[in-house]
Amino acid sequence: MEIADKILHAVRAGVEELYGQSVGEGVLQLQATRPEFEGQLTLVVFPLLRISRKKPEDTAREIGEYLVGKVPEVVAGYNAINGFLNLSIATSQWISLLQEIRQDPTYGFVPVTEESPLVMIEYSSPNTNKPLHLGHVRNNLLGWALANVMQANGNRVVKTNIVNDRGIHICKSMLAWLKYGNGETPETSGKKGDHLIGDYYVAFDKHYRQEVSQLVEQGMDEETAKQEAPLIKEAHEMLVKWENNDPEVRDLWRRMNEWVYAGFDQTYKALGVGFDKIYYESETYLEGKEKVEEGLAKGLFYRRDDNSVWADLTKEGLDEKLLLRSDGTSVYMTQDIGTAKLRFQDYPIDKMIYVVGNEQNYHFQVLSILLDKLGFKWGKDLVHFSYGMVELPNGKMKSREGTVVDADDLIATMIADARQMSADKVNKLENITEEEAQEIARIVGMGALKYFILKVDARKNMLFNPEESIDFNGNTGPFIQYTYARIRSILRKAGDVDLAALDTDTELSDKEIGLIQHLHGFRDTVRQAGNDYNPSCIANYCYELVKEYNQFYHDFSVLREPDEKKRRFRIALSAAVGQVVRNGMGLLGIEVPERM
Ligand code: ARG
Fold first, then answer.
1. 29 — pLDDT class (breaks 50, 70, 90)
2. At 79, which helix (H) or strand (E)?
3. Which residues have CB under 8 Å from 592's CB, separation 6+?
4. Is residue 356 in contact with ligand 1, taking CB distance under 6 Å?
5. Lowest-pLDDT range, 47-56, 421-430, 515-524, 559-568?
6. pTM score, two decimals?
7. What per-residue confidence (pLDDT) applies to 396?
8. Best exposed site among 1, 29, 93, 350 by fewest CB in 10 Å?
9. Is the beta carbon of 358 within 6 A of some atom in ligand 1?
10. Does 127 sit in the ligand 1 pocket, CB within 6 Å?
11. Is 454 in the pocket of ligand 1 (CB under 6 A)?
């Protein structure tokens, strides 16, 4: 039983014995004792005055006496301040709580069983015409962390991705490659496949703009020129061929997409993220059409004179939404309906979470209503995990102009910077090899990037500041990783100590008790992160815990403590902090190094 439950149980019995009346459920409240008072848990006695018919202070004192007399193994002492009964918890309780945490390698996590609810999380969802950028990095890190958090809260999680692999954008890259590529491949050029395709997307745009300005010079107005430029017409023709299954176009499309996927896979691997099931828009968009026809037959949607199909959402306070164009082709929304259908066929989904930027808030509001109308039981409560924009200090990310912050470049820079920043420390480590130093740099560089992004409330726009993220002091990944490495070093030096049998009468300081309480709070933090879909509270928890541990480490000796009991207790406490930090950072997808 939890310490708080033991106390509440005893208080209930005490009130009955003292005042002859039982306390209703939910009346009793325990809270953390304020720092200016002695004790760790405080009972608020005001709600009991009705029963005790005594002054607050007297009621508190009587209950305090009762507790100390009846359950001395739990309550070691008390002080009564007005209506607040501050309780000092017996050392043995703290020690056994510490041991409970230490002996459960996944303390704070709810186990997952076959019967657990199934949560599908979609994240990343790139388009195949260009490499991943900083915005995707934020998306991927959030998606991965959220998936871990949901799993730690006892859900079966399926991580999924919907790749937008078809459409005009990929035709643009294909066309430019045919025209200007001279058969270039990732092998011949040594370029990563996604970068190669991205380069042709940029090339298309460059030539297309030249064509448009030529037409404008010849006297055409700009809007017409944009539609009449030969390149864009050709791209549209290619899309029609694609839709009609033209073998040559399809072959080229498959070949170029394969290049892109090989590139994406490398980036995902470097980010430490992955998927259980990947969907492709080329395979889902036709399903969407079918589903819309179905809804049309049921009278959920309507057809206009020009043959286009619409959903009227004015009753829901939204507008009318196009689902099929007059030529029968599908739109973005249609694709999402089709994807939902396939996913539900594949998995018994209880909850669906979409990790997609906040510029698509409206889209998901509409999607939720449409899926609900179409009979998806999780449609109404679908979660759009909406996040804000991320920028580097020097301006916005722009994808077409080539000034976008590329994910691969960013990752490489972070690791190189980490190698440089930690060179002094790392090079001094005993028997360090270049290989290990490089591995530490990878862990620290990625930790800096991930932590800096994940500690921020996802809904907020943010600035990613590489220098600040890698600072070894402050609210950063490397600061937390460094403390973890320090703990590991203490444990290595401690060698073979028996931590299984701690003495329950070890004298504990407030700092040490505070740390155990903080460790205990990990469970609630994991719960909160799951309920609020908020990985940032895990990040902030880890930071606060590590800060508190460092204060303790500054004020107390661990290995040099002469009292054997205390020394063993402190080693165990350090081990528990290390374990919880590793698990907490693990939820965020952040590794922690053995030394650094
Ligand atoms: N590929 C889309 C884009 O780049 C994002 C897809 C989001 N997911 C979805 N189910 N609509 O904007």
1. confident
2. strand 75-81
3. 443, 447, 480, 481, 484, 485, 581, 582, 585
4. yes
5. 421-430
6. 0.95
7. 42
8. 1
9. no
10. yes
11. no
